[in-house]
Amino acid sequence: MLGTVEHTTDALMPNTEETTKALATPLESKFFNEMRHADGSIRDEFIKIQQWLSEKSLEEIEQLNAQAKQHFIYEGITFTVYSDAAGTERTIPFDIVPRIIEKKQWDIVSDGCKQRVKALNAFLHDIYHEQSILKEGVIPAEQVLQHEAYQPWMLNFDVKGQIYSHISGVDIIRDGTGDFFVLEDNLRTPSGVSYMLESRKISEKLMPDICDKYHLLGISQYPQLLKQTLIESTDVENPVIVILTPGHFNSAYFEHAFLAQEMGVPLVNAKDLFVEHGKVFLKSIHGRKQVDVIYRRLDDDFLDPLAFRPDSVLGVAGLMSAYRNRTVVIANAPGTGVADDKSIYPYVDDMIRYYLNEQPILKNVPTYQCRKAEDLDYVLNNIEKLVVKEAQGSGGYGMLIGPQADELQIEEFRQKLRFKPHAYIAQPTLALSVSPILTEQGFSDRHIDLRPFVLSSQKEMRVVPGGLTRVAMTEGSLVVNSSQGGGIKDTWVVERRDEMTKI
Asked: Which segments of the protein form a coiled coil according to its record (predicted)?
């Protein structure tokens, strides 16, 4: 059951009489507070930032947040809100107070994400080859083979190093005890890494003194690590790499352009590429160049009008034929979507045990699969307590948060579940951890999550020490997606030092 998290953070307050009068005493909360212990005292890793903030007035901190917004505007860091009839481009809200994670905690997250992605890649190889996990009944075969994201094009096709998802995003939350849970996996075209990198630039620009005191573990190497991962996806020496974008109307277009610039590779759309004699070529001012690796940022359905949707103008005709001829690498590989569907998510723990012979480092959130009669019956009778999601949904769309829904919304979802149960899953309403943000009333706690990014090649798995921390900017909201009004924070991974508690 949800409770309010609109309580202030007195221990973080600037020392101004105006602020002190405007804010109330912190309330008790069942949510794990990233900054404070249960007794209200500041966690060791936050002491320096608390001291830094307390030395500034509320107005000074507001000015820093305003400068951060201007940075986003100046750099053109925007996203498109598809639910807006006008397709509005907006800057994403940024909060100056960082989310801080000790390295010993980060190592758990990093190792758990690597383990998970390794198992998911093994699963993808298996279902497109021997299908052992299906034959042994660990996962119901029909749930995989009849899945709309399952691609027969990939059957018995060997990808280099058995890596299907080169770039993965794993969404992590913390419950009321502070334990880490995986909320979902993103293996198709995970986005948000540009926000992670730009958030760090803002921190270092606006708070250089406190950043220096913390000796933050760096994340700026991500674009070059991504490029190295793509290079390792092919046997070609000095491969030509391109980023394939659906265009500037895509919500993540800024990220496409940002990564192309940072990696020093061309950003292309369908008109820039063509297939001839089973090879993909790039049109350039120096003539045509054969393309060796395509980092695609559009979904399978739009990749090739000859193989998938014939009405697609975003893809390249003949691309899948070239891919099957092994003259080009597509990252992430077609067909990865079957592994990050929310109805497959409950089986990832089983995949880890089956393929790696290991116990999962990170826990799954308990999940009810509405395709199962017993689970559906429970969800229908307890829907007001649960979060119901579309199995193929993303961006916070197509979901119901039972405790916040009215009777009409609940009844509407009951009808959807009865009509198409296999399209939905349900989970308990989670007590996502909270972190302070600056609001018009001062500092108040808001729910957050974390998306680390895992880079996988046959040579190495790489995770930079940090991720995208997303914030539910609205009081009491559990939805952190930018498309639903969510914001972001910088994520600081810090070494634990004895002097950390000394200012």
From this structure: none
